[in-house]
Specification:
With 196 residues, the chain is of the alpha/beta class. The chain has seven helices and seven strands. The strands form two sheets. It has a four-stranded mixed β-sheet with strand order 6-5-4-7, covered by helices on one side. It has a three-stranded antiparallel β-sheet with strand order 1-3-2, with helices on one face. The chain is elongated and about 70 Å long.
Amino acid sequence: MHLKTLLLRARLVVDGFLSGLHRSPFFGFSAEFAEYRQYVPGDDVRYVDWKRYGRSDRLQIKRFEDETNLRAVLLVDGSGSMGFGSGAWSKYQYAATLAASLALLFEHQRDAVGGAVFDGAVRTWLPPRRGRRHCRHLLAELEHAQPGGRTDLQGLFDWISQHVRRRSVLVLLSDFLDACERDLAALPYISAAGLD
């Protein structure tokens, strides 16, 4: 599997998606207009739409959509069980293609993306950053990793709690063959620590 083919496979997947930034649940005063709302005493008069007031005799405030920046961490299982597959691709190749597709999608949305390939320990780690060069470096790491070793999800979760400090979305791609109930029971604690 060469970087060119992983990049092409990921682009084929991402090209089917609509382009554009993800919408924010928060409102602020930026460039993206969201809606009007009724003026209430105490609102900043700088944001009153005076032209609309001249036409309707009602004071209304322009609300704008605030932009959000997403941080994503793609965690790809590189254990020996991921080397198996029933067709031309192994489970690892499917997981790497999905991770590469998500990385390209995040890069297109100008979000920070990082990733790790793990088995019993974290083998490669790129912290979340923005930019095309960083995304290509992440794809190269996914491309060159070879499945081997045994999965240790508990060790991965401990490692994440120490190295991923800022609120991030975690995407875990694994076959979960070596996972036990103790490992999966740790997932709610990861979410409680501000990692979704």
